[in-house]
Task: structure prediction
Amino acid sequence: MTIGAILPYPSWAIVRFASIGATLSLVGAASIFKIVRRRKRRNIYDPLVLMAETYGETEASSPTPLVATGKNSIAHFIVSSAVHNLLVATILCCISISGYAIALHNYTILANWMDGERCEYLNDYVDAVIYYKKALHVDPNLKRTHLLMARALLRSGRANAAIQELQAATDGTKDYDAEMVLGNAYLSGGFISKARDAFALATKISPQGLECFLLLGDCQAKLGYPDDAYRSYERAVTLNPQSEEAHIRLGALLSESGHSVEALAHCIKAVALKPNEAAAHNILGTVYAQRLQYVAAIAEFRRADEISPRNALSYYNLAIVMERTGKLTEALSSFRACVRLSPENQADQVAIENARREIRRLQSP
Result:
């Protein structure tokens, strides 16, 4: 049973507040009858005097009691006071019910948000979308719900639906979170140019955003603009020098561009910041291999394999270095270990396909 599955039924609140109103009316009527009974012994029934006592006036400050004006005046005063108290109680009851309705509205949205995020944490994106739809049914104009919905759609592989959801939510307005989710949706859908534009806009909206510069650099690198990617990654490193992700990506870009000295410095920094990050050891091993430092490269690839045993890229890189050093048996063993793994990302998929070709090449007569 989930949080959003059980919502408090409002009838109990109505009964409770109606009971409070009735109690207030009875207390008011009882106090009036008590005063009337006390005044009756003194033959004073003036409604002004009774009202003064009802609302806390002292006898010394009250006007001189007058002679009774008749039973009709007393009855009228009693009825008027009771109606007054009942009216006050009714107003309080309505205010309380309105407050409860607002609280119930907010609770329903929050509960569905929590259930949706719990499902996302468990990789159950279909149910997450269902919970976010429930939240949208309560308030279709809440932008955060649209963003959460788009994120769940994106993670479930429905990039086009996520894009449509975001376009409907933003309505032409510029929002950092919306642009980030939209950029990721374009990126997952293969629309790299549109993703780059979305991330570029996010960097203008929030010039201090680390993630938007990293993703912008990724898009620029994929589109074949290494100089632009370098500037984006360098900006990310400037924003947060302690970000291992920024150092890893900048080191990988520099390594691919042939700047092994600068790449080595950033990769060593990344490993120092996060020693248990397999990607950092993989990139550092690649840089060592470019510099023909094969012993150090093998050590880094083995360390990456220890951290993430199901990382196909580690096995492939290790096999390549083993082959270069003439250790063909170890190279073939690493290639075979690579193809036995299931790809976790696109890099792993490419590594596995390349490993299959290398196995056929090494086994050919």
